[in-house]
Amino acid sequence: MWNDASTPSVAAAPAAAERGQDFLVVENLSKRYRADQPPVFENVNFGIRKGEFVCVIGHSGCGKSTILNVMAGLEEASGGCVFMDKREIDGPSLDRGVVFQSHALLPWLTVEGNLAFAVRSRHPEWSAQQVAEHSARYIEMVGLSAAAKKKPTELSGGMKQRVGIARAFAVAPKMLLMDEPFGALDALTRGVIQDELVRICEETHQTVFMITHDVDEAILLADRIFLMSNGPRARVAEIVVNTLPRDRTRDSMHHDPQYYRIRNHLLDFLVRRSHRIQQASNSAAAEVQDTGGTVTVYPGLEEEGVAAPSAPAAVPELVRREPIALAGKAA
Ligand SMILES: Nc1ncnc2c1ncn2[C@@H]1O[C@H](COP(=O)(O)OP(=O)(O)O)[C@@H](O)[C@H]1O
Ligand SMILES: [Mg+2]
């Protein structure tokens, strides 16, 4: 196992048998775009429990979007497989809702038309009124009721992104896959939508896999944060368990000493370890040893200068999460 002095309490990655209980299982996934080039990523293994919120962080180009697209059934892996609910994923399905980095709206339909189109696909038996009411709820959720009759060309980038988010939620997929969904939003809107996301996940126990480059967003939202090493031959090198209390809020979480330990751990990974792991896995002569596996870490439980306890026992089970209080309810 690759390691260095800054790696805090480490537990072995869940065994394959344990992953068998996961709702979503990714096994030995790899992707190679060109035969004469090394794979973008390989040896990617993880499981996601039902109702769990997982964030993925890694440098640009390490293959995050490709992994998400394979999970969505939109792209084929070169090796390995993905199972959801014990069934192998071999194509797109309404069971997996996707929110892309850039919106993917139907340009000839209004906001409510885009929502209704998705809701009708999911519930073909619903009356027009049921579809309209359901759509309106989610349009309101993202604060776009006043723009419901507008077409995508009449909306700002942030507004279009919010329509995409509302559409994904309205379909209530078994798994929500989001690729940097809030990256294009201004900070205020992002905060409001993050809070809505927490509230909906709390209500619906939505299972989420989300790519983000924002470590604070990951600490706020995620139960576990997957850290990918740099490509080529990238992999999920570390799984950081978020041990902050579930009722954390954007306003309060920085008062918890765990927050800085987790945040520093994530930043250290991005600044130093992601690159060193990649070097180690590409060079037999590297001074750091690397077995190519995934380690689970609990940096929040590390006290300065004190060895952390055997971490798994100290990690709270998934519990219901309270809605996040809005900062000044500014929106
Ligand atoms: N269709 C493609 N053909 C060739 N290379 C691709 C293709 N799509 C992505 N790549 C390459 O695969 C790597 C991973 O891409 P991507 O999954 O988009 O990374 P990330 O989302 O982590 O930034 C990048 O180096 C990218 O250039
Ligand atoms: Mg990407």
In short, what is this structure?
The protein is α/β, with parallel strands linked by helices and 331 residues long.
Q: Mean pLDDT across all residues, rounded?
A: 84
Major sheet description: 8 strands, mixed
Tell me the helix content: 25-40%
Identify the strand order in the major beta sheet. 1-12-11-10-4-9-8-7
CATH topological fold name of the largest domain: Rossmann fold
Give the overall silhouette: globular
Which structural class best describes the helix and strand composition? alpha/beta
CATH class of the largest domain: Alpha Beta
CATH level-4 homologous superfamily of the largest domain: P-loop containing nucleotide triphosphate hydrolases
Low-confidence stretches: 1-13, 311-331
Domain unit count:
2
Task: Calculate the terminal CA-CA distance, rounded to whole Å.
Answer: 47 Å
What are the key terms here?
single chain; 331 residues; alpha/beta; Rossmann fold; eight-stranded mixed β-sheet; four-stranded antiparallel β-sheet; 33% helix; disordered C terminus; binds adenosine-5'-diphosphate; binds magnesium ion
Question: Helices, strands, pairings?
Answer:
Layout: E1 10-12, H1 16-19, E2 24-31, E3 41-48, E4 53-57, H2 64-72, E5 79-84, E6 87-88, E7 96-99, H3 111-122, H4 128-141, H5 157-170, E8 175-179, H6 187-204, E9 207-211, H7 215-221, E10 224-228, E11 236-241, H8 257-282, E12 295-297, H9 311-314
Parallel strand pairs: 4-9, 4-10, 7-8, 8-9, 11-12
Antiparallel strand pairs: 1-12, 2-3, 2-5, 5-6, 10-11
The structure holds adenosine-5'-diphosphate (ADP) and magnesium ion.
